[in-house]
Each structure stands twice: as C-alpha cells, then as structure tokens.
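Feature request, filed as a ticket because there's no other form

It would be nice if the structure record came with a short human-readable summary line next to the tokens. Right now we just get the raw output. Example of a typical job, pasted below so the devs can see what we mean:
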Amino acid sequence: MRDSYIDIITIRRKVFAKIAQLAYEDVDLLLLNREIYDLLPGEQATYRESIFRERAVIGERLRMALGLNARTAAETGAVTEGIDIVDIDRLVYNRPLVEVIKIACEACPEKHMIVTDNCRKCLAHPCVNVCPKSAVSIGKHAAIIDQEKCIKCGKCVEACPYHSIVTTGRPCSEACGVNAIHSDYLNRAEIDDDKCVACGACITACPFGSIADKSQLYQLIRSIKRGEPVYAIVAPSFVSQFGPLAKPAQVFEAIRQLGFTDVIEVGMGADLTTLNEAVEFLHHVPGQKPFMGTSCCYSWKLMVQKNFTAQNDHISESSTPMIYSAQQLKARTPGAKVVFIGPCISKKLEALQDSVKDSVDFVITFEELMGMFVAREVEPSAMQPQRDPAEASATGRSYAYAGGVAAAVTSRIKELDPEREVRFESVEGLHDCVKLMRLAKAGQKNGMLLEGMACTGGCIGGPGTLVPLARAKKNIQAFAKESPFASPADNTHLAAADKPVL
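Raw output as currently delivered:
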C-alpha cells in the first residue's frame, strides 16, 4: 500500500484485525452487522458523503476478508448473506481474487487531456499544429480540446511550451500493466479476470480504496483453533515489516505465539529454486531455449502465459520458493497444514492451482498477519526467541528485492561452470516486464537470464507489505549476511537427493 494513503491503510488493517478477532474469539458471524458499527461509530461520515454508504462499503470489505465475493448495489442485502459457507477451516474463496467494490468506486474519468489555467493562448499554438485529428482549437481565453475527436495521443501535452496541457486518468487503470481494467455501463472500474494477473497494483493505486482482494484469514485461524498442526512458511521480505525493533527471530516467535506449530524461512525453498534454475539454464540456453525467464514471481509468469504464449516455454520450469518450501515441510511432517505468509496477492492465486493446492493450504499477506498480531495483542519486538532463523542461504534471502533472484542464479551458474559468461537483466513493475518480454520476443535478449518482478522494488514492494522499500532492502541485505550458508549448495537443511546436478 502506498505510504501516503494513510486513511486507506488504516481501514484495511482495522478490517483484518476485526476478522482475526472474530475468528479467535468465536464470535457468531450472524452478528457481523454489529461489528460494522464498532468500526464506524457515530452519526457522521468521515470519508464519503454518507455514513450509510461508508458502512455499506466497510461491510463489503469485511465480507471479502471472509472470502466472499464483492457485491454490486443491486445485489447488496444483509451483510450476513451467504455467511454460513465461510465458517470452515479450509479454502473458501475462488476467482476472481481481486475485485472492484462497486459501491465504493467513484467512477473516475478515464484518460483524457485537459487545458489548465496556465495556457497563455500563445501565437505559436503548437498544440493545434501537432494534433493529428484537429481536436485542438484556440478559444477566447485558452486552447480548447474536443474530447470527442481527441485520440489521447499526448502530442499536445509534449508540444506545449508552458506545460499547460496535462494528462489525467484513472489511477487503477494507469497502474495496471496488462490493461485488465475498463469501465462498466456506469463508468465504474471493472477488472477483466482473463487479463488480470493479481499483482495488486490497482489495489494500492486506488485513492478511494475501492479495490480489494479476498482473504482466507478467518479460515486459517479456525484451523489453528481446531488444534490442527499449522506451519507458517515466511517469505524473505518479512524482515523489518513488523517494526524497526523487531528482529527476525522475534517475528518468528511472535508467529508461534499466534498458534502456529512452527515457522520456517521460504528462503530455503528459494535455495532449491536457485539450484534448479542454474542447472536448467546451463542445460537449455541457448540450445533449446533462446533465453530463460525466472519463475518465482507468479504475476510475471501469468503475464507471460497470457500475453506471450509462444514464449511461455522459455520461463523456467522450476517451482517457486513457496512451493518448494511447502513440499519440503509436508514431506518431513505428514498431516501438516502449510500457510505461506508474504507480501504477495498473486500467491493466493498460485495456491489455487491444481498442482499446488495439495502443498499450500493457506496464503496470507504481512498485512493480514499484522491483523492477527493486533487481535491477539502480540508485539513481535517484545518476544524472547529461543533460536534464530537459519534455514536459508544468503542468496535465498536476497530473493526479496529486485535483482536478487537473477544474482542468485548467475552466482550458482558460475559455481557450476566458472567459464560460462551469463548475461542477465532484471526489471521491476509490470509495465517494464511487458516491455522486456516484447524485446525478448523480438530476439533481442537471446542467451540471457531474465528476471521479472511485477512489483516495484521486487517482493519488498508487494501490495501486502508494511514498510517503505529503502528500509526493507537495507535490512534484508543485513539479514542475508547473517546466514550460515553463503551458497544454496551449502544449505544442510536440503537433502542431497533434492539438489540437482549437471
């Protein structure tokens, strides 16, 4: 979530804390309407024109946090409608994962050009001269743009010497790198699930908080309360997410205090991804594959799958760190349930896949985990841990930030084949991921290892994170240096049989 969107961040976190509280305290969900008034008391609205609309929106947020679909105004009935299906200890939600809360959407105008008061009505009027559709004319006081003729090319914006023409647009649409957002019949935002890759950029971009993802936070806690052995596997980007004073070992101990049987680093699975991708690259590039893309970011993989079908086979066949970690844990602990905790929304979608759902039972974000801490009044920095996390190598922990994956894989390639020269490129943000794949499709990235991260900054910039990028990266780099294993090949937590060889 954007650091400056403080009010939206506060609302989201209050909702997650409330859902966690309901689950831990066995509150009857038929009383959910009462909880809306607890979150939004009083007679006057704070953010919107009506307290009734605010409560309707918060009701939909609570329902989505329970795993239910968002409803339109025409569908909105009692907040408890269909609530009986959520009180289970397993997955409840399905696609679409990311939805627009229609009653919250303000129907922002789509992209168009506007002439501001800074227009000097100059003699040169380059805006008129460069317009290919004659959509710009000079009025009595300023230039005028005919929106019916305008094709949104932006040439007038570039030509104006006074910068008096600006481009305005819908924040959610502009944030989407795969053009998955359009307008419905009321000009409200609508997400095309066939195009959406669940990166969550639209969620963090919307200034009205009108887009949200579904959660299985409630079902996870119910599973814990039923006494089932639930293990947490935590993404490398967890470092510094829960306060500047909370050390990694304290965060793991705090998670155990929530009722988890134990906690391990997903960096261990990242080590397996590194080992496998290095061997795969040496075996297949450039002979069988002109280039190879990394596999850890699921939104990146989905983007390629949906938009670059012919190049889909060039993405690594290795499993993601989440999957490898879950498989390792379940192989050692039969009957265990596994929850992935990370910065990412698309991991929820990945866990729905038939090939994954038997390995990963739940997925929640750091933001949702914070809701659990708040509900149970657990302060990570106050914990007295018994041991430090030590399941991952330095390079496995570095998967958390952009460039870390490619650096880990190339480093391992060098260990296996010191004479091999490996060129690689790392990009962050879905728009740049698309640009990179267009170049790769055109043959301009042959022989290279390509790392794509859908979120700016990599995983540390995911929609479920809690702290600014710069602080997160610095602390993760420090944590990586503390690893007992310099290389994933040295990781003694991985069985020799699981480590691929050339």
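Something like this underneath would help us a lot:
The chain has three domains: 6-107+173-218, 112-168, 229-495.
The longest strand covers residues 337-342.
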